[in-house]
Specification:
- With about 350 residues, this protein is an alpha/beta fold.
- Helix content is about 30%, strand content about 20%.
- Strands 5-4-1-8-9-10-11-12-13-14 form a 10-stranded mixed β-sheet, sandwiched between helices. A 4-stranded mixed β-sheet has the order 3-2-6-7.
- β12 (about 250-255) and β13 form a beta hairpin.
Length: about 350
């Protein structure tokens, strides 16, 4: 594994998953067997605001090299992308009904409903419903201690995308032992379940910000809480300085536990074409914004702008074609719509 010199290190690391995506957008043509995965979108979210990073993931030997080259061309470091000596089925299917409803199963029916030919790349795809993570055995895309290049420990800021419970348990302590002073973690649905309730304090004790979709949070808190702010307060008590909830209808809830403040940052109003990767792009932008301004509210505003841009078209790199100055103009406009929730 190549180790690049520490003096060339970009300062950020993003860990997550690459995937081969087949997407039926809300509108527009289908995206068949294209580059995808939470790592790809989080990296673009960071890059939209001028950042690059070391990327950390596991892929099979059948993963297209030219997809990785597109990140290398944008100054991302790929020495943390571990190519294992086997094929890995990392296909994903998404049929977006609207901005809120996405189907991940039964692709044959969804292609038929839209009168589209079924793609050969999905032959044999099962699309099994997600199961709970294993507490002891890693999955194929789980990141191991041995996957982390030594040079990545020079990172000052790390974002960990949704992977699995074991990955989320091992990575924060590894980077804390290095130079990382900021670690953000996006929840994985495989452990956002009441059966993992006792594990949550240990999982969240060593991170700066915990980012979670509303549906995952409600699933975790079944029977314990119903108010989102109360849920955020419980999780903040386990250690994170900030808890961010990506809500279904109200934008982003930000709890600043250090300052005792709560904010609602709306979704930037735009036409949603393809919401694939929007939550991940939000997280990448949040990391860049927080390290640049050390202001979680500013970082959340940047994340909201980024998520909207990604949703306005299809493809991992779509948002990077934005006109110069547009993101700053949108940031100023969105800032006027933010409001503080008084406790």
């Amino acid at each position: 594994m190549t180790q690049y010199p520490s003096e060339d290190f970009p300062g950020f690391v993003i860990a997550g998953c690459f995937n081969r995506d087949t997407i039926l957008p809300i509108s527009g043509p289908p995206q068949i067997d294209v580059l995808g995965g939470n790592l790809a979108y989080a990296a673009v979210g960071l890059h939209l605001w001028g950042g690059t990073a070391g990327l950390l993931a596991r892929v099979g030997q059948d993963f297209p090299e030219h997809w990785l080259a597109r990140f290398k061309d944008r100054a991302f470091d790929l020495s943390g992308v571990n190519i294992v000596s086997e094929e890995m089925d990392i296909r994903r299917f998404m049929a977006h009904e609207d901005a809120k409803v996405t189907h991940h199963h039964n692709p044959v029916q969804h292609f038929a409903d839209r009168k589209l030919a079924y793609p050969p790349s999905l032959i044999g795809f099962r699309g099994d419903k997600p199961s709970l993570n294993n507490r002891s055995d890693p999955e194929k895309q789980s990141i191991r201690f041995s996957d982390v290049p030594k040079a990545y420990l020079d990172a000052s800021a790390v974002h960990i995308c949704p992977v699995d419970y074991l990955t989320h348990m091992i990575l924060p302590p590894i980077f804390r032992q290095g130079q990382a002073s900021t670690i953000t973690l996006a929840s994985a649905p495989g452990y956002m379940d009441p059966s993992f309730w006792e594990e949550m304090p240990g999982l969240l004790s060593d991170i700066t910000a915990f980012i979670t979709p509303e549906e995952d949070l409600r699933n975790l808190f079944q029977g314990r809480r119903t108010n989102l702010w109360e849920m955020a307060e419980v999780l903040a008590g386990y250690g994170p300085e900030y808890v961010l909830i990506q809500t279904l209808d109200q934008g982003y809830f930000l709890m600043d536990a250090e300052q005792g403040k709560r904010w609602v940052v709306p979704n930037y109003p735009s036409k949603v074409v393809d919401p694939t990767g929007a939550k991940d792009a939000f997280a990448g932008a949040f990391l860049k914004g927080y390290r640049e301004h050390y202001d979680p509210l500013e970082a959340t505003i940047m994340g909201s702008i980024t998520a909207a841009l990604v949703s306005e078209g299809s493809g991992v790199f779509y948002a990077l074609d934005v006109m110069p100055g547009l993101i700053e103009a949108r940031k100023e406009a969105l800032r006027e719509l933010v409001h503080e929730v008084m406790i």
